[in-house]
Amino acid sequence: MRDTLSSTISSVTDLLLRRPAAPDVLTEQTGAAFAPVSHVDIEARAVSKSFGTTPIFSDVSFRLARGEATALVGANGTGKSTLLRCLMGLIPTSGGSVHLLGQQTDETTGRQMRNIRAQIGLVSQKHNLVPRLSVLSNVLHGLLGKHPGIRHWSHSLAPQSSRETAMQALERVGLADFAHRRADRLSGGQSQRVAIARAIVSAPKVLFADEPCASLDPSAGEDVMELFFRLVRDENVTVVFTSHNIEHALKYGDRVLGLAQGRIQLDATAASLSSADLRGLYD
Amino acid sequence: MTDTAPPRNERARFELARFERPSAISFLGYALGLVIIFWCLAGAGFSLEKVASSPPRFADFAARAFPPNLDPQVLTRLGWKMVETLQIAVAGAVIGVIISVPVALLAAKGLIAGPWVNQIMRTGLSFIRAVPDIAWALVFVVAVGLGPFAGMLAIVIDTIGFCGRFFADDMEATDKGPAESLTATGARKLDVVACATIPGSLPAFISTSLFALEKAVRSSTILGLVGAGGIGIELKVGFDLFDYPTAMTVILMIAVVVIGIELVSGWARTKIIGEQR
């Protein structure tokens, strides 16, 4: 009996402490990156993805702890955005498994997946707002995971409590005065701030951001990143963001994952890295 | 001559390549195309002799049709028939457009229904479009009797065939980004469609609906030929009784109304959709 218990504890400990696959090239590992964590929000286990016969990446493994901000970097075409979509269960993996908020995404029913997704948010490279609708309606749509149905289709139909929640989210991104303006009348930076409001309105546990400032000029991009991380740092939200901007990856990420040649080639704390380390991924 | 200049023969070929000699297969293809065109002309009874002899006959018709019949009583009667025609067109187009939205949702790939349902709906819409509106009017005259209601039903079904297909295509072509952002936050398919796909397709919907209205007005003017209401019956009676002035009045009224509807529709399209399309 004692042996069985000891064996079980040992297995669980191994599982918790399991490190990613051995690196091929640039991989750096630090104690902080793989220290035992109390709460894992995202775990990728040997994930691979191919489109038809074209492999995108393979054997991608990592665990992301609650409250950790992880930058996913790599050259164009290395599959950063594809990996984000696999993590969110928006597209199926070709192999391996993804555990999001404690559940294996490919083993969940549609309803279970929606319940998981109700606890996450997404900010895309292109803000992805619905152009002809009001800013407030767009933010309210971020609540559809928690409150499905016609009452959250438009700000005109929404219950007062939801309207207030959405307005608070808009206040946090500094756009409360724009609530009734049409989304297609905003500048690029304002649109991205509305997209952030939509992503945080449901108080998600995990936020994904796919090159959130790629379509903005450097100044607006910096503002958006500052705002985004100021908002999520306070709430202990787990963040995964992709970026081509090495300075952003090092400044805003606690941890950096580098994709190159279809594999994770770099996994280290941002504090232990320099710009030169990341530039190697783009060679 | 520089090192990079092509050899003389190559250069001559390059300059003469404006018209390339067709390959044997291309030549056969062109020849087959010409044969098919002549075969179709023969089947259509194309006759240069008849074309040459038609101007005097047309002039004779014009001489008998002009001036159009502008008798106030006739104009009042035709005016009310035109009003009925527009009523048939507007009612049929509006109901058709409304029904087209759920039909298109089922026909569009990757939205709310599976591939089998998509295919069945698309096939049904193709069938509706394959049958001309005048044939639908004949069917509805049998089903509900003579009169404008049969015409309106024909317009409804014709509009569903037209709008159902184009609405579905528009929704499939809509930017997938907003839908993905909502899906990522756990929204149901129906919510995603209602909040992202349909609003994103709205400019295209409005444009297609206005084209459907123009089409409905044009169709409704001839449905009367088979007893399905509207001004078409006046045209038929005019020709049957050799009352060409009245028939000409009907033709001119139809032209004015159809052109007017196209102008209003174009204005509305610009006004509502703006510079997006």
Automatic annotation (TrEMBL), chain A:
Gene from which this protein is expressed: phnC_1
Q: Alphabetically list the UniProt keywords.
A: ATP-binding, Hydrolase, Nucleotide-binding, Transport
Any one Pfam family match given in the protein's UniProt record, by short name: ABC_tran
Which domain of life, per UniProt?
Answer: Bacteria
The protein's GO terms of the molecular function aspect are: ATP binding; ATP hydrolysis activity
Q: Which organism is it from?
A: Planktotalea frisia
> InterPro entries from the entry?
AAA+_ATPase, ABC_transporter-like_ATP-bd, ABC_transporter-like_CS, P-loop_NTPase
| Protein's UniProt name | Phosphate-import ATP-binding protein PhnC
Q: Top EC class per UniProt?
A: hydrolase
Please state the Enzyme Commission number of this protein. Answer: 3.6.3.27
Q: Where is the ABC transporter domain?
A: 42-282
UniProtKB/TrEMBL annotation, chain B:
Q: How is it placed in the membrane, per its record? A: Multi-pass membrane protein
Keywords from the named record:
Cell membrane, Membrane, Transmembrane, Transmembrane helix, Transport
Which residues span the membrane? 27-48, 88-113, 134-157, 247-268
Chief location bin: membrane
Name the source's superkingdom: Bacteria
Q: Where in the cell is it found?
A: Cell membrane
Query: What's an example of a GO molecular-function annotation for this chain?
Result: ABC-type phosphonate transporter activity
Q: Which GO terms describe its cellular component?
A: plasma membrane
Outline the extent of the ABC transmembrane type-1 domain. 82-265
Q: Which family does it belong to?
A: Belongs to the binding-protein-dependent transport system permease family.
Q: Which PANTHER family match?
A: ABC TRANSPORT SYSTEM PERMEASE PROTEIN P69, PHOSPHONATES TRANSPORT SYSTEM PERMEASE PROTEIN
Please identify the protein, giving its name as recorded: Phosphate-import permease protein PhnE
According to its UniProt entry, this protein's organism is: Planktotalea frisia
The taxonomy runs: Bacteria, Pseudomonadati, Pseudomonadota, Alphaproteobacteria, Rhodobacterales
What gene name is listed for this protein? phnE_1
